[in-house]
Amino acid sequence: MILLLGGTTEAKQAANALDDAGIAYIYSTRTEVIFEGKGQYRYGGLDETALKAFCNEHHVSHIIDACHPFAKELHITVASLSGDVPVIRYERLFSERIIDPLVYYVNNYEEAIVAINANNYQSMLVLTGVQSIPKLSSYWQIKQCWFRILNRDYSIDFAARYNFPPQNLLFGLPQEKDKEIELFNRLRPEVILTKESGLNGKLDAKIEAAIACNIPIFIITKPELPASFKITHTLSELLAMIQHE
């Protein structure tokens, strides 16, 4: 049995490939989503103990980690089993980092806030997802701030839990450059914060739109993956790794 950790575009692609190849799998997400693949589905968080027990119970032969690049804690949890269960990381593609006076790369939220406050920016558009609301509370509690989040109950409830102003929530997914320019010009934030989310996260479009609107953009760089992961960017290689071991 294959355990596919997902919730991303890459995970759906991997599920489709497993369906086409007739390989049995369990599709796992942290929060409940609509899943239309042929595999079994489960949802809910798994810590190291629970994940190990789950793999033993379901005789998991491989784990496919197709989670978001910034799911650092989950990557670490999965890596703890890599000595017993092979872990394949189906990774999205990332473009080369852009060098521009308006583009800044930082290592984490703390570093981003220090730099943003040092520049005295009074308003910020945040494109790093709902989970970043508590991480950035020191800023949005005193300055104008908008968060773009997914339009789903979990995200709305999460924002409400931290008393984030609902009128400053924007709902939707990353857009192409022209749509992002339209949004940036409508809000006119003094700074934009996003993550190094790769091509599927339309990072290039966000950067190009920010430059076109002459707005500084800070990008939190993606964390490094555990060294034990076998990394692939193609579905054919992913299937080969499973079938030929």
Give the topology.
Layout: E1 2-5, H1 9-21, E2 25-29, E3 40-43, H2 48-57, E4 62-65, H3 72-79, E5 87-90, E6 103-106, H4 109-118, E7 123-126, H5 137-140, E8 144-149, H6 153-161, E9 169-171, H7 177-187, E10 191-195, H8 203-212, E11 217-220, E12 230-232, H9 235-243
Parallel strand pairs: 1-2, 1-4, 2-3, 4-5, 5-12, 6-11, 7-8, 7-10, 8-9, 10-11
Helix pairs in contact: 1-9, 7-8
Tell me what the structure shows:
The protein has 245 residues and is an alpha/beta fold. The chain folds into two domains: 2-91 and 225-243, 3-Layer(aba) Sandwich (Rossmann fold), CATH 3.40.50.20; 103-220, Glycogen Phosphorylase B (Rossmann fold, 3-Layer(aba) Sandwich). Helix content is 34%, strand content 20%. The protein contains nine helices and twelve strands. The protein has helices at 9-21, 48-57, 72-79, 109-118, 137-140, 153-161, 177-187, 203-212, 235-243; strands at 2-5, 25-29, 40-43, 62-65, 87-90, 103-106, 123-126, 144-149, 169-171, 191-195, 217-220, 230-232. The strands form two sheets. It has a six-stranded parallel β-sheet with strand order 3-2-1-4-5-12, with helices on both faces. A six-stranded parallel β-sheet has the order 6-11-10-7-8-9, sandwiched between helices. Helix 1 (9-21) crosses helix 9 (235-243) and helix 7 (177-187) packs across helix 8 (203-212). The mean pLDDT is 93.
